[in-house]
């Protein structure tokens, strides 16, 4: 079962998630990634897509050329869950 | 050399581009695509990414699960060019 994180849990999680911030007016987190070019950006997106599909937990994302804006939230709990933390952690790891 | 399309050329092009519309306050075109699921949406995005990279002409796009919002414009001409028409035509073709 997916459980909604408390404000304290979100705060603690963000301390370990470099670059991720909360979204104004919505219980979600976001991060802007920048790559060398589109090729690198889309390669990153592809790795995230495979992970997301495996988790059955998908990002909201906007890409233009080398820039990628990602928002994560868990609709089932109308907020954030450990799935968002897991996906954000994965993105940070592979963005290296 | 990339040439900026005239208003008449844009109008004519849109007649053949099902679902594409102009963007308010900006010389660009956009379309919203809907797929069965994330897998199908990202498969489509991957085909478009390969085409875009080959053309060296990239979309602005927002995806969440099975939905994809695409905006096309040509920065070099500060408007629309034949590259946008070509990429939009390609997307319509493979979206089937």
Automatic annotation (TrEMBL), chains A, B:
Annotated organism of origin: Sneathiella litorea
Family: Belongs to the pterin-4-alpha-carbinolamine dehydratase family.
EC number: 4.2.1.96
Keyword hit for Lyase: yes
Top-level taxon of origin: Bacteria
Any one GO BP annotation for this protein: tetrahydrobiopterin biosynthetic process
One Gene Ontology molecular-function label: 4-alpha-hydroxytetrahydrobiopterin dehydratase activity
Pfam family, one: Pterin_4a
UniProt keyword annotations, A-Z: Lyase
Protein name in UniProt: Putative pterin-4-alpha-carbinolamine dehydratase
InterPro entries in the record: PCD_sf (IPR036428), Pterin_deHydtase (IPR001533)
Enzyme class (EC, first level): lyase
Catalytic reactions on record: (4aS,6R)-4a-hydroxy-L-erythro-5,6,7,8-tetrahydrobiopterin = (6R)-L-erythro-6,7-dihydrobiopterin + H2O
């Amino acid at each position: 079962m997916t459980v909604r994180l408390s404000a304290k849990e979100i705060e603690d999680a963000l301390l370990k998630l470099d670059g991720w911030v909360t979204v104004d007016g919505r219980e979600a987190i976001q991060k802007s990634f920048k790559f060398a070019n589109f090729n690198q950006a889309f390669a990153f997106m592809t790795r995230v897509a495979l992970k997301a599909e495996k988790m059955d937990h998908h990002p909201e994302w906007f890409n233009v050329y080398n820039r990628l804006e990602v928002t994560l939230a868990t609709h089932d709990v109308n907020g954030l869950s450990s799935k968002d933390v897991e996906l954000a952690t994965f993105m940070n790891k592979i963005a290296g």
